[in-house]
């Protein structure tokens, strides 16, 4: 069954999202969404699907079986995004200005891996939104090579561009957080000492060498690290 106007209104209330926020996320006009919610429109199935998809991406699940209509918000999630390119794109979607997440703070931390042997620690994120928390710790984000560093630099670039005053890091490399249940892992992370991440250098120096390794990529044309370093320099000068 297609999503109903009541479910759309209830979902927005759970997310504390305005109509314009949902319209932007769904790629439709504000007038179209307004008419759908008021029940004065006969929307295309593709329009309703776009609305439901945008809400699902924000953690909303809807069901309707003829007897009941349900709207549920999954407050905490741990995406099974093992592919680093897909995961980095997902992070960028979440932190973008058009997202329904309303990001309040972002924690960067590094963890060891029980299956990776002597490989470099994994870079992880905990994204805290107004009504939803996303833990990215199942992804193999590293800076071991050019392409992996580009993905991490792209995430950092987006974070500093859109949420520069909301970034934090942990001054330690954690044991493998993926061995803990989701609620337990998030609870532990929230209890640790979050330090403001005015610059990524102190964080990366916990497990790598920012100057020798990461800044080397900034000299490569087209590498996101070049844009990240330029942004950081301009903020320091400003």
Quaternary form: single chain
- How many domains make up the 3D coordinates? 2
> Helicity, in percent?
40-55%
Q: Please work out how many helical segments DSSP would assign.
A: 10
Architecture of the largest domain, according to CATH? Answer: 3-Layer(aba) Sandwich
Fourth CATH level, the homologous superfamily of the largest domain = TTHA1528-like
What portion of residues belong to β-strands?
Answer: 15-25%
* Largest β sheet strand count, sense and barrel closure: 6 strands, mixed
Mean pLDDT over all positions: 91
Which strand order do you get reading across the main beta sheet? Answer: 3-6-5-4-7-8
Uncertain ranges: none
Termini separation comes to 53 Å
Indicate the structural class: alpha/beta
């Amino acid at each position: 069954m297609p999503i109903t106007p009541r479910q759309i209104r209830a979902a927005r209330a759970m997310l504390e999202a305005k109509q314009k926020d949902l319209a932007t996320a769904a790629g439709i006009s504000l007038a179209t969404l307004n008419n759908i919610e008021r029940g004065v429109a006969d929307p295309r199935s593709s329009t309703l699907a776009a609305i439901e998809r945008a809400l699902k991406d924000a953690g909303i699940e809807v069901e309707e079986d003829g007897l009941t209509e349900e709207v549920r918000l999954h407050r905490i999630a741990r995406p099974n995004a093992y592919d680093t390119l897909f995961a980095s794109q997902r992070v960028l979607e979440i932190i973008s200005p058009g997202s329904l997440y309303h990001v309040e703070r972002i924690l960067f931390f590094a963890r060891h891996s029980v299956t990776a042997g002597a490989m470099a620690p994994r870079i992880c994120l905990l994204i805290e939104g107004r009504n939803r928390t996303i833990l990215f710790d199942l992804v193999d984000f590293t800076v071991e090579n050019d392409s992996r560093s580009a993905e991490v630099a792209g995430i950092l670039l987006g974070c500093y561009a859109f949420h520069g005053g909301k970034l934090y890091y942990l001054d330690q490399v954690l044991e493998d957080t993926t061995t803990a249940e989701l609620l337990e892992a998030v609870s532990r992370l929230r209890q640790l000492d979050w330090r403001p991440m005015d610059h990524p250098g102190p964080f990366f120096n916990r497990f790598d060498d920012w100057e020798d390794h990461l800044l080397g990529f900034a000299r490569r044309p087209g590498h996101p690290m070049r844009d990240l370093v330029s942004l950081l320099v301009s903020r320091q000068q400003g």
